[in-house]
Amino acid sequence: MPKSRRWQLIILSAFVIFLIGCGLWIIFNVVIPIVTYFWPGAEWHRVEDEIQEFYTKVLPDTSWVEEKFSIYFYDSKRLYSVNIDGTELKCIFETSSFVRGCYFSPNGKYIAITAVGTEKHDVSVYILDRSTNQTRLLDSLSDIPEVYWAPNSRYLLCHICELIEAGHGLRNEFYIFDCLTGEKKTIAIPSTPGDISWDLESKNIYFTNFEICQDNPYRYNVELFRVPITTLKIELIDKFKYCNGYLLKRLKLEPLGIKLFNKIPSIISKTGYWDLPLTLRNGARLVLDKKNDNICYEQANGNKKVLFRIPRSAYDRSYCVDSFRGIPGGRYVIMRGPKGNIIVLEPSTGKMGKLSEGYAFGWYELY
What is the pTM assigned to this prediction? Predict the structure, then answer.
């Protein structure tokens, strides 16, 4: 074959390969997104297939788990406890209302439960003693509160922010409950706090108010306030100018001698709460590879093993597996599966099993 002919074939082959590459790029980056946009069912079917593939790796139960500790979770009207191996399932709280949230005290002895009734302004706050499973009503509030336990597990702060009936402005109030005596103290807050926290001694409540800087929407002027639980008087402590955030942890409080209680979130919401990476036994970790949406088992020497890929919702692209929890240095991890059930994972082996089936919220806490 003449040399010129050979070069013509090479150039033609390269051009054909180029056209094929362009065609594939157009298909994956233009055609498929357009089809998905105008025919959302295609994306829904793809996600459903990924979810089904995920559950092929999940065993029907957790009887193979070799440790025992309690997991707490609830459906719409009941709070349950169950051992991680699936035994001793108990309903420890039931209401005719709807369970809105469960908040564990720092010492793990009590659970604060908020339940929402069918009528407007019908929210009940209960305290459950885990040692006896006895529940008592603390109070009925006018709206769903944000709940903050004091470090000493004696005081419970509920923050209410609700629209005034006339439709003008918001009403902010703090309710402080003494869980030993049942005493309730109320204080009105002039505006909606940006962030709230107890101090380490359980003597003061700190909160911030803020306004966005006019010349930079990412900077804030922040005011720091304190409420001693003995006087319930709001005290302005300091002002911080041009801060990069209004959360208490972003403020320089050490020069003021303030030591805050770092609250550990004890409620798992439907939108998910991420605790990754989780530290496991022998220095290993459970980590998320955000680039490929993979959950990986990372050994202490840095070696990684992919356990599974997390499906993403066709609606908002959020992760369908979330709410990862685990005991530091432990062997197992608990997570909420795509169908709302609770799944136990043993990262070192990749073994997974269903702990509960079909509970609407899949919220839980472990101690």
Answer: 0.73
